[in-house]
Design brief:
35% of the residues lie in helices and 18% in strands.
């Protein structure tokens, strides 16, 4: 229960005060998008690698009926080692709470970095301060076109997490160092007027073992989803946004907010799309496109949208 008390203290310390009405925020309504459902994961609030400014901007410009927080939202591993929190990360929390106030259904599916929250599964956050945020270990989401999607973080299918947690912590430290190099590179590119680019993501996709790990993970998750009789699965964990059909199962991964700044969204017709939200300091004209969740269209799953504020 010590971790539970720590979680209470953490969220009590970073949650912004409740207001009778949220302050007016100047938003370009031409860039505002409405979705049926939004899925985000692996934001890793509490770390230097979290792209909190981009995430807060995304939440401010994208409305939805249901918001899924698919794990590793708060990085408990890092915060227990060293406290780190910024105003931008507080703005992310504030944007989520504003959605709750506006009537959005917010569902939190904890991951391995915020596994302490799993003890709260089945009930709401801490009284009045976090009322309306549901916590579940996994759930089924039904799309507008009637497909049943299994929603979970996905760490249970990671052999390192399941059988060698100490190695996962070592890997987490090394990954954090790579993300710090990302920040240095981004600062240099920003000075030169170049857009955000992730060195760690580039290296991950070039290293054979990492590519094979991602492929194995996707296939294992899809196989388990098929055994449960669902139409598809939504997960996070591996920081690799993807929409593709594996066998008879639609595999969807919403990516992360430390490298790709991506989210998975569903429209009013059940079409699924990956949005990649660039850093607000490098806004470009929006480009949109849809990847249907229907089997015939998922064959063209490479049509992932780059929806970026102008």
């Amino acid at each position: 229960m010590a971790e539970i008390a720590w979680f209470d203290s953490l969220l009590g310390g970073v949650a912004p005060p409740r207001m009778a009405a949220p302050p007016a925020v100047a938003l370009d309504t031409a860039l505002f998008r409405r979705h049926r459902t939004v899925f985000i994961s692996d934001t890793h609030l509490g770390t230097r690698g979290c792209k909190a400014e981009a995430l807060a901007d995304f939440l401010a410009h994208n409305d939805c009926a249901t918001l899924f927080l698919v794990g590793d939202i708060v990085d408990g591993w890092q915060l227990k080692r060293r406290w780190y929190w910024t105003d931008a990360q507080s703005r992310v929390v504030a944007e989520i709470l504003r959605k709750v106030d506006a009537g959005t259904r917010v569902i939190f599916v904890p991951g391995n970095h915020d596994e302490f929250a799993r003890d709260y599964a089945g009930r709401h956050f801490f009284g009045n301060e976090f009322a309306g945020v549901e916590i579940v270990t996994e759930t089924i989401h039904e799309t507008a076109d009637g497909q049943k999607l299994w929603v979970l973080h996905g760490d249970r299918f990671d052999g390192v997490i399941a059988y060698a947690k100490w190695l996962a912590h070592v890997g987490d430290w090394a990954y954090g160092m790579a993300l710090r190099l990302n920040d240095i590179l981004f600062a240099a590119r920003k000075t030169l007027g170049l857009p955000y680019w992730s060195l760690s993501a580039f290296l991950k996709h070039k290293v054979k073992n990492a590519v094979e790990y991602i492929s194995r993970f996707e296939e294992i998750v899809a196989r388990e989803a098929a055994s449960r009789g669902v139409d598809g699965v939504v997960c996070g964990h591996i920081h690799h946004a993807e929409i593709r059909r594996i066998g008879g199962v639609l595999y969807l991964n919403d990516g992360d907010w430390v490298e790709s700044c991506s989210a998975l969204v569903e429209d009013a017709h059940g079409n699924m799309e990956i949005l990649r939200w660039a850093d607000p300091s490098h806004r470009r004209p929006a480009r949109t496109g849809h990847t249907s969740a229907q089997p015939a269209a998922v064959a063209a799953a490479g049509r992932q949208a780059q929806a970026v504020p102008a």
